[in-house]
Design a protein that fits this description.
- By secondary structure, this protein is mainly beta.
- The chain has one domain.
- About 0% of the residues lie in helices and about 35% in strands.
- It binds zinc ion.
- The site of zinc ion has 8 residues, from loops.
Length: about 90
């Protein structure tokens, strides 16, 4: 998958969810000739399974994940949904 999710507990019943995504590739393919040219890859797609060698390589452009723009999305979630409708009336 192209995203990493992390849960952080902020306070009682409130959770901060962080989703890390790697967007467009910023690798300069023309650095040797003094220009700035990117390959146009717009989303990091791991070339291998998580934990394997290919996981940090983009399947589309073959660049290392570090060349892709890192975007962190944060959400707040409240409580846990397992206790939603379990109270009998
Ligand atoms: Zn690339």
């Amino acid at each position: 998958m192209n995203l990493i999710e992390e849960l952080k507990k902020i306070s009682r019943g409130i959770l901060m969810k962080e989703r890390i995504m790697y967007e467009d590739c910023r690798k300069n393919h023309a650095a040797s000739i003094g220009k700035y040219v990117v390959d146009g890859c717009c989303k990091f797609m791991p070339a291998g399974e998580e934990g394997s060698h290919g996981a940090l390589k983009c399947a589309a452009c073959n660049c290392h994940r570090n060349f892709h723009r890192k975007v962190v999305h944060q959400f707040l979630t409240y409580g846990d949904c397992s206790s939603k409708s379990s109270i009998p009336k």
